[in-house]
Design goal:
There is one protein chain. A two-stranded antiparallel sheet has the order 1-2. It has 6 helices and 2 strands; from the N terminus they run ααααααββ. It is flat and about 80 Å long. The chain folds into 2 domains: 110 residues, no CATH class; 30 residues, no CATH class. By secondary structure, the protein is mainly alpha-helical.
Length: 169
């Protein structure tokens, strides 16, 4: 009985490189400025920033980081509202309300408006938006939240869920 054993090469122990953040040399101010300009352009276009870009902003431009954080909060608020829209008409109303809610005197107006427009464009490309009925009338049949339905009567149940015929659910 003749058994041959072949030598197997040992597996090399390769290390996974940890997450690295762009860290230019202290003397390379042009690289920092270039990277800041790229991030600013991305913010002006309304795009989302990566974690690496946010960390870079926090280290090199705290004021721009605050702007980016504020834009991100506005974007998330709009996204949450759009997810609960019951029709395309309602989504358009939420979008116009978000646009109108940004003051003309706001120093971050340009960034916020771009982010709102980008978020709406992203939402319109989703399947959930495409499945929404065009108008609120077509969405009838499902309970709708009407916070001021019986406000004139000033009854304790003036807030709540109502069906399509106005009955309290």
């Amino acid at each position: 009985m003749n058994i041959q054993i072949k030598a197997i090469k040992p597996i090399e122990n390769k290390r996974i490189k940890p997450f690295t953040v762009f860290q230019p040399k202290k003397t390379d101010e042009e690289a920092v400025t270039r990277h800041l300009n790229q991030i600013t352009a991305k913010l002006k276009a309304g795009k989302r920033l990566t974690a690496e870009e946010k960390a870079f902003l926090l280290r090199h431009s705290p004021a721009l980081y605050q702007t980016a954080k504020r834009v991100e909060i506005q974007r998330e608020a709009l996204k949450n509202q759009l997810e609960h829209a019951r029709s395309k008409e309602e989504a358009a109303a939420i979008y116009s309300s978000a646009l109108g809610g940004v003051s003309k005197k706001d120093p971050d107006r340009e960034y916020i408006l771009a982010a709102i427009q980008d978020e709406m464009k992203t939402f319109q490309s989703t399947d959930s938006y495409k499945k929404l009925p065009a108008t609120s009338k077509e969405a009838d049949g499902k309970p709708v939240y009407h916070p001021y339905k019986n406000k004139k009567e000033k009854t304790p149940d003036w807030m709540g869920f109502y069906g399509k015929h106005g009955e309290y659910l």
